[in-house]
Amino acid sequence: MRYSTRLPVATHILLCIALLGGEHKTTSAFLAGSVGVNPVVVRNVLGQLKAAGIVSVEPGVGGASLAREPERISLLDVFRAVEGQEGLFRLHDNPNPACPVGRNVHAVLGKSLAAVDDAMEAQLAATTLRELMDATSEREAMRYRG
Amino acid sequence: MRYSTRLPVATHILLCIALLGGEHKTTSAFLAGSVGVNPVVVRNVLGQLKAAGIVSVEPGVGGASLAREPERISLLDVFRAVEGQEGLFRLHDNPNPACPVGRNVHAVLGKSLAAVDDAMEAQLAATTLRELMDATSEREAMRYRG
DNA sequence: TCGGTTGTAACTGTTGACATTACAGCATAC
DNA sequence: GTATGCTGTAATGTCAACAGTTACAACCGA
Description:
The structure is a homodimer. Chain A is mainly alpha-helical. Chain A has helices at 6-20, 28-35, 39-51, 75-83, 105-125, 129-145; strands at residues 55-57, 64-66. Chain A has a two-stranded antiparallel sheet with strand order 1-2. In chain A, a hairpin with a 6-residue loop joins β1 and β2. In chain A, 38% of the residues are buried. At the A-B interface, α1, α2, α5 and α6 of A face α1, α2, α5 and α6 of B. Chain A binds a DNA duplex through α3.
């Protein structure tokens, strides 16, 4: 079992807005065409990103834009916006309190799993949208240089 | 969306085998009673742990035991045994190759997400079953000391 | 007012986790 | 050698989450 594709989809959307927003009107239909999903999925993700203060969306006229500089948007911001605050792991529901292991396993394991969550989030926070934009531009440039 | 409860369940099972194996015959029914799940779930998880070389299970006579010292069993070993080798995130399927973002997003994002996977696994590898056993024993001792 | 867009709700198909039942295979006790 | 208890595994049912899709109200600019 693993996470949904929401983080990749949201990141793709942000890259499109950041890199193509000057040349194109970034409507949900346009973004959906690049990402390869249904426009409604784009609108839902944009709604989550808007609620998190990452993008601004123009109702009526159409189009989305970044609400702050790409240097100040990390993958962790995007992750939290679209996946919520819940931890990576879920403890099982019904350990037996009459068993010395069962009555302690949540406390003991919880500490270790929280450390894993922290490590994952620290690594997500280490990448900014700006770095992904630069990496994309670099690859595009290489494409034409050969 | 998050991981299943398999890692916690498997860890709970291992703790029971390690700490209670001396006093009790650790059959799937006994373990299921402590973990609070169906015995078949225990047998399935034990099968995965056995395939990974972490436990030995006695068919016929019944009962399971650790296949190596708890110092040499990390949460990462358990995680890989029950959750497989797949990464945490899944890239979306159909980015548009005609779009400069779409044709690069997998390569660009994949690198960052692989780093997140590595960070998570490193943290999982930092905890051994021995540490969890000691933490459990310590909490049990405190329970009686007050 | 009209055309294009966003914001949502509702329905559907798919997938995975988990519980449960059932039964074949195996090892020990008698 | 049979009975008993356990493991291994297949089949089935339930439930929740994700994602695709349709539909429609709300909104804005020409």
